[in-house]
Amino acid sequence: MNIYTLVIQTLMISPSGALSPGPLTFATMALGINGGWRKGVYVALGHTFFELPYIALIAFFMNIIRDILSGSIGDLITIAGVIIILFFALSLIKDSIKGSNPDARNVISGIGNAFVMGFLFTSLNVFFLLWWLSIGFSLILLALEAGFVGLLTMYLAHIWMDFLWLSLVAEAGKRGTVIFGRRGYRIMLALFGILLLFFGINTVLKRFFSISLL
């Protein structure tokens, strides 16, 4: 496997996962309201903390992981993920109703929370897990042809998109607050909360009833 070919294919395939809007995107934008792009970096670090070892496991135990995710354990992961999403969404809506100050400590403040949310929203997103077992698996197979160097090269060519994208959406959240003021801040909290509620409901419908609202 030519390393340059691997990099090009990674750059072509990765956006289908890294740049697709979802719960992690909107949660990051909400977190960014109180910290800008730095919160996006911490979310991406939490995301990476799970994703990198997960890819390594797929490289060696792909069939076992696929069977696990397609069964009851996959259902439990989905339920746990939806609970996290709904809790975060309702907390955002609650803060918007209370009229929390952008500088106050609330559910979306704290750098530590950004890392934790990045990890949780990644590890408990069964559709993310399945992406690496389907679309992303072709990249893993190509990378393994070049051994450890290929796997590392593939991941580096992939992960920078996550860091860039999540930093940008987090900064967008902050700038939106600066532009629209406190009223805009409350509206943005409510909007992100509603969007996360929508994604949580859609996740349940898609997993258990094969119905997608998107």
From TrEMBL:
The keyword Cell cycle does not apply. GO terms for cellular component: plasma membrane. It is found in: Cell membrane. One of its GO terms (biological process) is amino acid transport. Its main location: membrane. It comes from the Archaea. It is a multi-pass membrane protein. The chain crosses the membrane at residues 6-33, 40-62, 68-93, 114-133, 139-166, 187-205. Keywords: Cell membrane, Membrane, Transmembrane, Transmembrane helix. The keyword Cell membrane applies. PANTHER family: LYSINE EXPORTER PROTEIN (LYSE/YGGA) (PTHR38825), TRANSPORTER, LYSE FAMILY (PTHR38825:SF1). This is Lysine transporter LysE. It comes from Ignisphaera aggregans.
